[in-house]
Amino acid sequence: xxxxxxxxxxxxxxxxxxxxxxxxxxxxxxxxxxxxxxxxxxxxxxxxxxxxxxxxxxxxxxxxxxxxxxxxxxxxxxxxxxxxxxxxxxxxxxxxxxxxxxxxxxxxxxxxxxxxxxxxxxxxxxxxxxxxxxxxxxxxxxxxxxxxxxxxxxxxxxxxxxxxxxxxxxxxxxxxxxxxxxxxxxxxxxxxx
Length: 193
Hints:
This protein is 40% helix and 25% strand. The protein is α+β, with helices and mostly antiparallel strands. It has a domain of 134 residues.
């Protein structure tokens, strides 16, 4: 290697060349954005229908009924409440709840019978950590432990208290999130009377 200094040459770019490259880049971005918008608008109805079907299946899973009629209630975390009817008689309510777990939002459906007791819990969507949070939200046996619980003994708590839900070791935040969602559902039904 020689010890000669490196001489950097100054490169003069023609402004027209820069504008041409910028225009090409903008055109590519516009085409890609347009394609994304078209794909989004084409798939949105399909995704919405699939989500509605998944919610309907979850509703039937947590509380069997012939029809579900929406009712209005205002409880934090509760996104929708439906009165469940069979043969014209109210058999309970199905409550859609969004609560927070370790990995983010947990969307779930809670069935509550006419006596105010939980009939079932089904998680529709979650972002919980695999093999930890999913031990709670993805396990029907764990979610089944809420069946029969009500607000008669106070709010449902995790691992302590009179109205105790035995959470999953290592998934305490997820367990508390689901318990909070069930409490919100029970509070919504209690508000309806």
